[in-house]
Amino acid sequence: MVTSQQENGKETYWVYISNILSTNICIFSERERERERLTEYLKLHYSSVITL
Fold it and tell me: Domain map of the chain by residue range?
């Protein structure tokens, strides 16, 4: 599953959930603050969060 959020027509981050059961999540972001905020949120719900 791949999702993205757009702000002013520009993508702020991508979240890739490769396997719901193993909850491996990769975050790609051009904005450090958005990436950190999203990473902290996801860590509350998933066991494995990888920030790239």
Answer: 2-51
Structure tokens at 49: 């969060």
How would residue 1 be classed by pLDDT, with cut points 50, 70 and 90?
A: very low
Q: How is residue 52 written in tokens?
A: 């790239």
In sequence order, the β-bridge partners of residue 48 are 24
Which two tokens mark 24?
Answer: 């491996």
pTM of the model: 0.37
| pLDDT digits 0-9 by tens, 21-41 | 455 555 666 677 777 777 777
Sequence-distant (≥ 6) Cβ neighbours of residue 24 within 8 angstroms: 17, 18, 48, 50
Beta strands in 1-52 (DSSP E): 2-7, 10-17, 24-29, 48-51
